Amino acid sequence: MLTHDAAMEWMARWDRQQEGYLPDREERFTVLIDAVEALGRPDPVVIDLGCGPGSLSARLLERLPEAQVVCVDADPLLIGLGRAAYPGLRFVSADLRRARWTESLELDRPADAAVSTTALHWISGPELKGVYAELATVLRPGGLLLNGDHMDTDDATPTLSRLEHAVHDRETERAFGESRPEDWRAWWDAIEADPALSELNEARSTAGADHHGSESRLLSDHVQALEEAGFTEIGTLWQRGNNRLLCGVRG
């Protein structure tokens, strides 16, 4: 049985290992939530795409307590961890790559924003077009897609792309030196060894929720998919090296 206290300990450990890859993770969260807040509604409807255990959504709800936040992910273990850690959030189990995934959201009005951090790169380029096209059907005109992730530009500007990677690598070295936090694989190994999580681990194994590779790592993949989905303004709202916050405005 996963208790709230145990889930919060796992969440603290999750956040630390994520920061090992993103030393400016909290700054990116803050900028993303600033953009949602700048829409001007105290009660925005926000969809968190590939929410994982809810780190971003929990911070968003802390800033905007009247917001309706719908957290969407296909991983039963991460959803179970998030539900135990953050009972105030609503989690929906859905695979973004499948048609009509928005039907499970049960929104009472069009969403004001869709947000995501370090998640959508797992989705292949062709599938990403479907995700953004489906998203556009539930996002209001003028609504935002805010996607924080590592996105590369070596297909268009290879020299700048190399420099972006160098900036990110040097920032990471300054932040951690030789004392890097636990990495992704070590965190998952520990999760799989916890008997309190045996049922969730079994559900995860059955669902085939493990990720492999970075399928849509290029900025151009996301820009093209957003353009085809009818987003009229697309640009980088914040950037540190190749870590950026991409914003698209629904037309």
TrEMBL record:
Alphabetic keyword roster: Methyltransferase, Transferase
Ranges of residues in domain Methyltransferase: 46-143
Family matches, as SUPFAM superfamilies: S-adenosyl-L-methionine-dependent methyltransferases
Molecular function terms, GO-annotated: methyltransferase activity
GO biological process assignments: methylation
Protein name, entry field: Class I SAM-dependent methyltransferase
Provenance organism: Nonomuraea longispora
